[in-house]
Amino acid sequence: MIPTEKIIRAAQSYRKELIGFLREIIAIPSPSGEEERIAKRIAREMKRVGFDEVFTDKLGSVVGKIGKGRIKILYDAHVDTVDIGDRNKWSFDPYKGKYEKGFIYGRGACDDKGCVASILYGGRLIKELGLEGDYTLYFTASVREEIHEGLALSQIIEKRKIRPDYVLIGEPSNLNIGYGHKGRIELKITTKGKSCHAATPERGKNAIYGMAPIISRIERLNKKLKAKEPLGKGMIAVTKIETENTSLNTVPDDCAIYLDRRTTLGETKGRVIKELKSLLGGSRAKVEVLKHENGDERYYPAWILKEDHPLILAGIETYKTLFGKKPKIKTWPFCTNGSYTMGMKGIPTMGFGPGDPKYAHSIDEKIEADDLAPAVSFYALFPSILEISKKVRNL
Ligand SMILES: [Zn+2]
């Protein structure tokens, strides 16, 4: 028997402490790459609330572990945030953790520290009520998600050899179940020409003129991209144009454009590159996928998990058990670490989190305090429901 009432009550009883902890970690600035301080605070809290094991990996992500059963479940939420942008545009200090009229404010409140705090307290609840079962639960409070989706989890999965059977991504979803999102690729196209004095342009070949028709074709391509439900239509945009040319009276011999390509299902990296090459019109322009410093390509695949997948069904069941109604199943408007776990590794992945995604990355970011306890109870109960449903289905 699942002690549903007890779980709901325990989650509610954490309210004050949980809000306090969330405000505290909002007050520790953690832009991508500078997560050391917040990671230490999170590791300390994981130990305090009773996680069986806690360690920090080489990259700086904190990993907590509960139980040692057969089903391996990984919960992930990232501790880094985007920059605050123009400080003057905020109506309060983004690094204070202001709490007023039922909302907690600050950079990272919604994306993604509310999820970090709720998952952590979900772990606490599992330990306090003894909800452990035939599962091992890992919680990765991961770093650098905002600049390199998947990097932290690839370290955990490849280097630390923690191979989850299922992944739950904690990102703001208004407490709905997330089952996928579009992918993205960052690309560059370069044209070459021949430089000469701008007073006699006929002697050279202007690389910018070589690029112009390609840009027009890309603009037209964006209108032609086909939708694939439930993710909808892909998108392509030229986001920057540059030349190495340093002189304003020389015809440039090079030109580069940068592209942000959002992909729907079926729009793989190979297909995207092929499609762009077909726009080059016989010119010798070069198309390339941009890379991170460590050599990883800036490619994050689109993904979707079937609505009737056992993981999603367990999510629905958990929701119904706790809240007495059916959840909404939604796609996310942004990219997450799920691009790596599901898009690249094929590990069944689902999402769930407190907070409204529309406040992610926004000025005056906030999260509703009433979202937190339901999230805690969901994170605590979900592994048990998944375990039971696996037994029932004989998986
Ligand atoms: Zn996020």
Helix content: 25-40%
Number of strands: 19
How many structurally independent domains? 2
Order of helices and strands: HHHEEEEEHEHEEEHEEEEHEEEHEHEEH
Number of helices: 10
- Secondary-structure class: alpha+beta
Radius of gyration: 24 Å
Low-confidence stretches: none
pLDDT average, as an integer?
A: 96
Bound molecules: zinc ion
Taken from the alpha-carbon principal axes, the silhouette is: elongated
The CATH superfamily of the largest domain bears the name: Zn peptidases
CATH architecture of the largest domain: 3-Layer(aba) Sandwich
**Name of the CATH class of the largest domain:** Alpha Beta
Major sheet details: 9 strands, mixed
Task: Give the percentage of residues in beta strands.
Answer: 15-25%
The CATH topology of the largest domain comes to: Aminopeptidase
Q: What distance lies between the first and last C-alpha atoms, to the nearest angstrom? A: 21 Å
Question: TL;DR?
Answer:
The chain is α+β, with helices and mostly antiparallel strands.
